Amino acid sequence: MEHVTETRREEGSGAGAPEEMKLFEQWTKPQLAALCQGLDANLQPAAVISKDLMVLHKTPACDALFPGEKGQQFYSLREALGGETCGAVQRSLASGEACSELVRLPGGYYRMHVFPVRDKAVLVFAHDAQRLAGASLAAARQRESAQRLLLRAETLRGNGDGETAAFLRREALRLERGANQLELLCGAAVPEWRAESSADELLAHAQRKLRDLGVTRARVQLPARKIPLWVNAEQILLALMTLVANSLRHGGEQARVCLYALRQGESVVFGVDDDGAGLSDRALARMDDSWRQLDALPGDWGLGVPYARRIAELHGGTLLFLRGAADGCRARLTLPLRQELGLETVSGYQLNLAGSDAVEVELSGVLEPDAFGAP
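User: That's the sequence. What structure does it adopt?
Assistant: Structure tokens below.
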């Protein structure tokens, strides 16, 4: 294992949220119970360690990253990670403040998030994708095509052909959506810029755009109080609307979606709930890597969840899907409230929406062309 000298401090979360929202505070038997409320938690590398750096519990995905000796139930984290990384974990435990480290494991580079909880800590490993040669060029070409379609749509609308203009505009937004996903999933390291925003502003914007697009099956519940955020607001909005679009697409024609936000200590939890068909076992098993499989079909690559999860990870957050008693899907995107402002990137990745709105871009994959008749 190779330690990479890159550290980022994060604010820990606090109490005061509803029981289902306490992703990292409630530790009963087993100690991963709260985290494993997520339907896809077993697919995400996570572990609970003691203050002495003993590995107490692991998800199956984490076991694949650094398994102990055969039949060994407990072992030291030092056997899996280097001294510098373990030192960072110990400092996080001592201070009670969350942090993150970039580490290299046999499967590649991972962002290791450390969440101290009482006398233990949760480690969550997020794969740090490497940039693929040509991805930026391919994304740029898609954006060029999108811009040409948008210009053509504007001309047609001016000539009175609103129906064809709306169709072309939707196709342009779909191209833009694909370009954003391609570039980010193929290795953009961090958001280009973060600025002061708020969860209520993001949700109010989503509410207005959903109304303008004529979306009646999705509603937005605004928080009672202002929840400040320092984020790349467009990226967070893209992630949330990706989850909304997934619910509209896969929940069934009668499925209803609710988007909301709650403050949880020094974190904000965005919820996207629907009452649709829920996640099948096959969808659950493939939600993060179906787009990499050879049997992926056009129009069904499954980019939405890994794209939204990647955006959450780049902001020091997480995306989990909760297990519920009834049908439907419940997604939870959790972000720290306070982060560094104006963070620049090594990769130079910069979100490009071709002059369009994030809500329109993400919903272009599920709405009919007539929703995009207005510029």
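The mean pLDDT is 76.
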